[in-house]
Amino acid sequence: QVQFVESGGGLVQAGGYLRLTCGVSGANLGNYAMGWFRQDPGKERELVARISSGGNLFYIDSVKGRFTLSKDNEKNTAWLQMNRLKPSDTAVYYCNIIGRTNWGQGTQVTVSS
């Protein structure tokens, strides 16, 4: 059974930083494109950053230059380093294989102004 477990969220002030961790079991992360997503209450879940199985990175415009996605295939772990956080980054953050529809619990990120 494939499981994604997100951690590292919290409450920070605007301008602060957080590092989210995604632990994966039941799947070899190196074989898949994966991404970090976020969802604010009342809004649809959106892709924030994505990495292909070959290592190509994509970020949405609002996080470019502030967020960095990285992964270690041997550890089956991915991270999202989030710097210069803004209140608009407040959401529950999830990691997942691109196209997979089962979701973990996510981790709450709250950025105060």
Task: Give the termini distance in whole angstroms.
Answer: 40 Å
Spatial shape: globular
Question: Structural class from helices and strands?
Answer: mainly beta
Instruction: Give the spatial strand order of the biggest sheet.
Output: 2-10-9-4-5-6
Helix content: under 10%
Q: What is the radius of gyration computed over CA atoms, rounded to a whole number of angstroms? A: 13 Å
Largest sheet features:
6 strands, mixed
Strand elements, count: 10
Helical run tally: 0
What series of H and E elements makes up the topology?
Answer: EEEEEEEEEE
Model description:
The protein has 113 residues and is mainly beta. It has no helices and 10 strands. The protein has a 6-stranded mixed beta sheet, with no helix packed on it. It has a 4-stranded antiparallel beta sheet with strand order 1-3-8-7, with no helix packed on it. The model has no long low-confidence stretch (mean pLDDT 95).
